[in-house]
Amino acid sequence: MRTNVIAGNWKMNKTNAEAVEMLTELKGLVKDVEGVKIVIGAPFTALSDAVKAVEGSNVEIAAENVYPKSSGAYTGEVSPTMLKAIGVKYVILGHSERREYFCETDAFINEKVKAVLAAGMTPILCVGEKLEDREAGRTAQVNETQVREGLKDITAEEAKNIIIAYEPVWAIGTGKTATPEMAQETHKEIRDVLRSMFGAVAEEMVIQYGGSMKPENAAELLAQADIDGGLIGGASLEAASFAKIVLAAK
Ligand code: 3PY
């Protein structure tokens, strides 16, 4: 019923030339793939070239952040309108690195979710607990708060166009992955929260797993009932490894 969405998150990696080289290779590797949405999140500088590089293919481009105003005196920031105008389709929001290093709060992330929707793009809202939360038995509570606050005042109709990425913070960039069973348990808890907010629309909403998803573990994670794709860090930097994850999602 739900289509798997496999999205790369390049983070602060790749010059424009490197971005175009990777995307050109990726397009060829995944050209016959149907039934999976394929997305690459690129840094601002590479977005325009990235969009052109994937034109006419089944790969789409995401930004990794945005400022929630359409224009104005916000030195150094980039608006949803600007991203939309160059052909960006998705925006990754609330990644744990932004929450941690740039002090992003749930309320600020909620503003961004609304601004991205208003511009006609799809937000990918990242949520996830830290190791100390999991060890203290607060996993469900932390994720529920991030989902409820991040999606505050969102309607069920709008929720149809929102992707959640569950990324346990202790599994990001550490090589550690949640076991498929642990991930499924948390995805189900998140879907229960979405159901209490949006009713039946929750069954249509994509919940990706993120946090060291790689070719070796993708198939068993993606086989879980409530895991509908992945947000992939390190393994998205190389076309060959990312394509293997895409193929595992078919
Ligand atoms: C990771 O896999 O490291 C990520 O942070 C994906 O967003």
Low-confidence stretches: none
Number of separate helices: 11
Please trace the helix and strand order, writing H or E for each element: EHEHEHEHHEHHHEHEHEH
In quaternary terms, these chains amount to single chain
Distinct small-molecule ligands in the complex: 3-hydroxypyruvic acid
Name the beta content range. 15-25%
Structural class per helix/strand content? alpha/beta
> Main β-sheet, in a few words?
8 strands, parallel, barrel
Radius of gyration: 17 Å
Could you characterize what this model shows?
Helices cover 43% and strands 16% of the residues. With 250 residues, it is α/β, with parallel strands linked by helices. It has an eight-stranded parallel β-barrel with strand order 1-2-3-4-5-6-7-8, surrounded by seven helices. β2, α2 and β3 form a beta-alpha-beta unit. α1 packs parallel to α11 (239-248), α7 packs across α9 (180-198) and α10 (215-222) runs parallel beside α11 (239-248). It binds 3-hydroxypyruvic acid. 3-hydroxypyruvic acid binds next to β8. Involved in the gluconeogenesis. Catalyzes stereospecifically the conversion of dihydroxyacetone phosphate (DHAP) to D-glyceraldehyde-3-phosphate (G3P). The active site is at residues 95, 167. This is Triosephosphate isomerase.
What is the secondary structure topology, with strand pairs?
Blueprint: E1 4-9, H1 16-30, E2 36-42, H2 44-53, E3 59-63, H3 80-85, E4 90-93, H4 96-101, H5 106-118, E5 122-127, H6 131-135, H7 139-150, H8 156-159, E6 163-166, H9 180-198, E7 207-210, H10 215-222, E8 229-232, H11 239-248
Parallel strand pairs: 1-2, 1-8, 2-3, 3-4, 4-5, 5-6, 6-7, 7-8
Helix pairs in contact: 1-2, 1-11, 7-9, 10-11
The structure holds 3-hydroxypyruvic acid.
